[in-house]
Amino acid sequence: MKATFINLPIHDVKKTDDFFGALGLEKNPHYADDRTTNCKLNDTTFVMLLEDSRFIEFTNAPIDRNAINHLVAMSFDTPQAVDDFFHKAIAAGATDTTKPSPDSDAFMYGKAFRDINGHIWELFAFLQEMPK
Q1: Which CATH number, 3.40.30.10, 3.10.180.10, 3.40.50.150, 3.40.50.720, labels domain 70-132?
Q2: pTM of the model
């Protein structure tokens, strides 16, 4: 596998650009227009963000915002890096959805948020080698 592209529906390109820009995520203007934007998570992972009407055209499927049918999880090197990204998201308008996780607290540190378009993002850092 060379790269991963996650496609998500959004409400408004400008507000979404502002939100992800506040998180420090890079946008490729060559893959953006008045109904589509994007952000780079790392060298091989990208999020394509399509306004609702464009997403429906792209997928040929309706959007159901009442269903939670996806969650984006991102790993970081340290708990501090998790906190830094999380606090940027909250400051940009995201909602804290962090839940205690006693089963994983011994080996993983995490935070979670719902972005301005309703998508859930989980951020985590391993505190030690993951149990096998």
Answers
A1: 3.10.180.10
A2: 0.85
